[in-house]
């Protein structure tokens, strides 16, 4: 069980161990103490009154000669029970109040929300004191006072959590299916807000303990002859100058109890919160035996050989990108196409050295514009990458700093990497903005990113990449977030940029048609490896790898026969954690034989600059004359 | 049993008030029929998703009305179901596949544990999900499988109308095909009226009998799929069609020399003059007159004499013909566009 092992792991941490021991100890004391030490705690012995600490009375005695240590231990039960009761009141009340806006109409919901916020703004302890006086001094009054004063914070949390669940698609679906509102709350909302609430409730147990101590200490809580930890603190304080133990004993207990529950809350949060990638056990993956010699011709602007990106996994390193080799000639437009999880984006990040820890990039060769990126790693390489390699990502808004105007933001590139004066850099920024065909570039340079539309922002990002003299532009899903008509404009722009700047482009996309539209050559990735390298013109009808063929066939276009079912690929891609020993596509492949399941095919060259990793490549006659150097058409 | 008919008449959805008011859907007329699939195409901000929510009763209309078999839709109802875009958000992560599908079973569903389980298994079978998956949690399923479960849950309510809002756009290409096949098969088997919304024209073309194109809250063109896509009359529809990247077009057009890597692709051919320039209109500040005029290739941008596009809104009194475009200069080919407004009334073409 995954969840069980998470609990175990969380409670094996120092915080988990300490907090569980402390809380267990408190509970044992609360159960045992009244019967074990009740006598010493309650029987007056005036001869022993107000004695300091001794071997017989470790914390000394009070004004009636009762043992203070016994009294502290016995008081723990009452303090814990009252804290638990108050937390119960706060939780139930908070949940009801917080979930109410989701059940009532919109206007009533807004009123309740405002009321919660109003009460939340009121200091909790002040509210508790106020309520304690209203409800009357003593146990009952204190529990009610602290319980009720804890309601606003839980209610606010519950309200926020409920609001986020209430707008979830599955709650909308339930509404459309006619599920009653109260059922929606118990079925969908409560189970999904339980985790953060449990954390919060554990934490508030600790603060309730402290609140009771505070209330009793100022005489608004438990009244003698009853006593809890706060009341003992109150009794001990007048003697603090000559008998510090009498007040320090209860004070320390309150602190320990409060800390125990707070730490427990932390441990619970760790068990329930988002899982962190377990640190450590970073293993450098050995480069797998390099299969096909990459078609590296001298003069390539980018050469990648046997690129592997590894991440530490629960059972050994995972390699979402393995043995990727390719090269980009100056000015060449190459696409990488693949489905989610195929490793296409990680390949791009690996090439540009942007893989975050704990990912580890290794390669046989990784050279960019003549510089070896594997061995050299200093300001020179950073400057080279900064001016000669530009990246365009899917979301242009996150690629731009929202707080800096477009012009200065672009100017920063050449100011940092080339030390260009501010004014010149700004002038270049305006020039580059007009190069990407943005209207009124001078005005635009003075605008913030949020003032631009999605398409304009993506143009600005491309302009930023053109601030230096890019030799390679890596574009990772640059049009996925854009509308179709805007997509076609951005693709046109990339083409123009490639022609004008003679920059090579590496376009990464899930969309075969987009890649085919822009690129000359296409690398098809599946389960972390390149399975085929082919000219874009061959995509439609002449792909050699069964996966490429299937992928192209599944995408409907404007000529697809509407009377036939669409072609599909059975099964799903393997996860990087469970790759089959042979060809990763074999389980879904109609041509697969025994060999495919046991031996992984290497990426082998054929024809003119074509490569395929398949035991049964579907090589048509059209591809063969190409191999002999005849240029079609 | 009567044949379901959904009538959308003058549907208008306005958000906000005063200066911040945005008209997301502006006076839309549309008919949906049982056993027919109506495709709805548009870019972001076109109002297509808002219209979907209005049809399902999740969003209240500010004007006009939507009726299902004569009864106005004012709140969510079991016979109108919606399938969401994100299969990762549409299933409760804490409920099993069986529990999620069971939620769709209505008051008429069989009572008793085994009878209900049988009903759920039958529904899962309809969407090609194995019965053994009934106890699985959504986290154990792929995106495509989740979308199938969401379909089964909607089918449990035996909907007369199914609204599918971008149901494949979050899925991988190889999964998209099987979901589209499934939706088509289900519609044939169950006979519900299907409103299929997508930004992808090729996908809409594959599933829809009729197609409706929306732009900035208005319908600009609608008609039988084959006709609209073969002979688009609205310049916006034409620009949409031209923007679609296509491999088959590539195969016929491409003349790139594969051996020479530096060659500029042949597709650089200047297509931009026909495709829409500039960005889609903002529904919060729609342009005057025809909302498409700032981007229109045959409008005042290139033809200064066409001032009517600046002053009159051709979508305002849309004539309901079998195939119509809300354009004063509607014509099947950009070159063959009429020299003067087709008629005095807008959007007529003969």
Describe this structure in words.
Chain A is α/β, with parallel strands linked by helices and 633 residues long. Helix content of chain A is 51%, strand content 12%. Chain A contains 22 helices and 13 strands. The two termini of chain A are 61 Å apart. Helices cover 27% and strands 19% of the residues of chain B. Chain B has a seven-stranded mixed β-sheet with strand order 6-7-8-3-9-10-11, with helices on both faces. In chain B, strands 2-1-4-5 form a four-stranded antiparallel β-sheet, covered by helices on one side. The longest helix of chain B is centred in the middle third of the chain and has 18 residues, at 173-190. The model of chain B is unreliable at 251-276 and 336-350 (pLDDT under 50).
What is this structure's SSE topology?
The complex is a heterodimer of chains A (633) and B (350).
Chain A: H1 2-11, H2 14-42, H3 68-103, H4 106-121, H5 124-135, H6 139-166, H7 169-176, H8 181-217, H9 229-236, H10 244-272, E1 302-313, E2 316-328, E3 333-337, H11 344-351, E4 360-362, E5 365-368, E6 371-372, H12 379-388, E7 389-392, H13 396-399, H14 406-418, H15 422-435, H16 441-444, H17 454-465, E8 472-476, H18 484-501, E9 504-509, H19 512-518, E10 521-526, E11 529-535, H20 546-554, H21 594-598, E12 604-606, E13 610-612, H22 623-627
Parallel strand pairs in A: 3-9, 3-10, 7-8, 8-9
Antiparallel strand pairs in A: 1-2, 1-4, 1-5, 5-6, 10-11, 11-13, 12-13
Chain B: E1 5-15, E2 22-33, E3 37-41, H1 48-55, E4 63-68, E5 71-72, E6 80-83, H2 97-104, H3 113-126, H4 143-156, E7 161-165, H5 173-190, E8 193-198, H6 201-207, E9 210-215, E10 218-224, H7 225-230, H8 235-243, H9 247-253, H10 308-311, E11 324-325
Parallel strand pairs in B: 3-8, 3-9, 6-7, 7-8
Antiparallel strand pairs in B: 1-2, 1-4, 4-5, 9-10, 10-11
Helix pairs in contact in B: 2-4, 3-4, 4-5
